[in-house]
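Page 37, continued from 36.
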């Protein structure tokens, strides 16, 4: 997807990489995305976490409300994607370890 990596996307990546305050980052998400887009994106991350934990599609659908299509798409990305979900899950795992929080969702 090299054609997606425009100067504008590079600017967005730069901002996201440099923001280290969750509240500021959340305000940016609220400005950039609709409420629905924020919810759907965070839902996909929850789905990825549950898939990585070995949960079934049925359990994930029940827990998150995600459709089977969304779960399958996330699963495909986990298996054959670019590694973005894996990197995100590693960050969450590290954060969970620091906070003592488990991954039970």
């Amino acid at each position: 997807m090299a054609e997606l990596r425009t100067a504008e996307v590079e600017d967005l990546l730069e901002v996201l990489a440099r923001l280290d305050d969750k509240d500021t980052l959340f305000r940016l998400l609220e400005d950039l995305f609709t409420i629905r887009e924020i919810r759907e994106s965070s839902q996909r991350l929850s789905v990825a976490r549950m898939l990585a934990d070995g949960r079934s599609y049925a359990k994930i659908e029940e827990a998150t409300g995600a459709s089977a299509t969304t779960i399958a798409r996330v699963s495909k990305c986990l298996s054959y994607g670019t590694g973005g979900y894996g990197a995100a899950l590693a960050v969450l795992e590290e954060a969970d370890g620091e906070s003592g929080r488990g991954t039970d969702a």
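The radius of gyration is 15 Å. Flag for discussion at group meeting. Residues 29 and 94 are 22 Å apart (CA to CA).
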